[in-house]
């Protein structure tokens, strides 16, 4: 029998990198709503209490980029107060130009602006045709956001990360070796409560018990404290 471990990671919507993705994606969506021929190459950078939005944009759409960015921050649930970014008062620097005429001359005739090469494949491990580990990691991240926004665990902050290690046997998922969850939380909440709540209301609510056993390891906020989050805790960049 061939046995091996495979690990995948996911992040919540409040993670600095995901924040940047959401701002760039929302700008694209708003442009396409008004002009399906929009050309949008937007990069977002987040650090401390500042958001920088730069890139090239050629579109007939009329959008307010700063307003879009602040709405994304608000929708995520950032609270400011020195623990994460302040959506109302943070600095937003917009530096966007039109697409280069040199690039446009190739795109105008049907070419691609970027020659990116990507590969991937679907598999039958999950209903969404994604590998089992990344599917579970994504579901855990979504559940963290759900329990925060619904008020089940209102003391959680928007920044978080999940990691799942699956043991395979003959290329089939058999059990979960390790689940790691790190999530921002209010300062006055004891670590033991954070760990207990996340195991009971997030992990066990998402993961089928048949993959868990007495040897499954749980690491919840293993560093012991995660109060400062978002761009105040780490730099984010559109990936």
> Strand percentage, roughly?
25-35%
Overall 3D form: flat
Number of helices: 5
State the low-pLDDT regions, or none. Answer: none
Molecular structure report:
With 239 residues, this protein is of the alpha/beta class. 30% of the residues lie in helices and 28% in strands. It contains 5 helices and 8 strands. It has helices at 16-34, 65-76, 101-107, 132-149, 191-206, and strands at residues 3-11, 39-47, 50-58, 91-97, 156-169, 172-185, 217-220, 236-237. The strands form 2 sheets. The chain has a 4-stranded mixed β-sheet with strand order 1-5-6-7, covered by helices on one side. A 4-stranded mixed β-sheet has the order 4-3-2-8, with helices on one face. Helix 2 (65-76) links the parallel strand 3 and strand 4. Helix 1 crosses helix 2 and helix 4 crosses helix 5. The longest helix is centred in the first third of the chain and has 19 residues, at 16-34. The radius of gyration is 21 Å and the shape is flat. The chain starts with a strand and ends with a strand. The mean pLDDT is 93.
Write the layout of secondary structure elements.
Elements: E1 3-11, H1 16-34, E2 39-47, E3 50-58, H2 65-76, E4 91-97, H3 101-107, H4 132-149, E5 156-169, E6 172-185, H5 191-206, E7 217-220, E8 236-237
Parallel strand pairs: 3-4, 6-7
Antiparallel strand pairs: 1-5, 2-3, 2-8, 5-6
List keywords for this structure.
4-stranded mixed β-sheet, 5 helices, alpha/beta, 239 residues
Task: Give a short summary of the structure.
By secondary structure, the protein is an alpha/beta fold. It contains 5 helices and 8 strands, in the order E-H-E-E-H-E-H-H-E-E-H-E-E. The radius of gyration is 21 Å and the shape is flat.
């Amino acid at each position: 029998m061939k046995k091996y471990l495979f690990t995948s990671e996911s992040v919540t919507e409040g993670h600095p990198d995901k924040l940047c993705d959401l701002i760039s994606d929302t700008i694209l969506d708003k442009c396409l709503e008004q002009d399906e021929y929009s050309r949008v190459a937007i990069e977002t950078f987040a650090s401390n209490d500042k958001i920088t939005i730069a890139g090239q944009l050629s579109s007939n759409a009329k959008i307010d980029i700063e307003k879009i960015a602040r709405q994304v921050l608000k929708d995520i649930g950032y609270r400011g107060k020195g623990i994460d970014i302040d959506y109302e008062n943070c600095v937003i620097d917009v530096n966007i130009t039109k697409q280069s005429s040199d690039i446009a001359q190739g795109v105008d005739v049907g070419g691609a602006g970027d020659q990116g090469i990507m590969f991937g494949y679907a598999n039958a491990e999950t209903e969404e045709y994604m590998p089992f580990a990344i599917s579970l990691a994504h579901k855990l991240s979504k559940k963290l956001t759900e329990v925060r926004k619904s008020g089940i665990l209102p003391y959680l902050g928007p920044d978080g990360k999940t990691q799942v290690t699956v043991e395979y046997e003959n290329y089939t998922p058999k059990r979960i070796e390790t689940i790691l969850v790190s999530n921002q939380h209010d300062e006055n909440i004891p670590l033991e409560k954070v760990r207990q709540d996340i195991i009971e209301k997030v992990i066990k609510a998402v993961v089928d018990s048949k993959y868990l056993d007495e040897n499954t390891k749980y690491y919840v906020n293993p560093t012991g404290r995660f109060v400062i989050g978002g761009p105040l805790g780490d730099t984010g960049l559109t990936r």
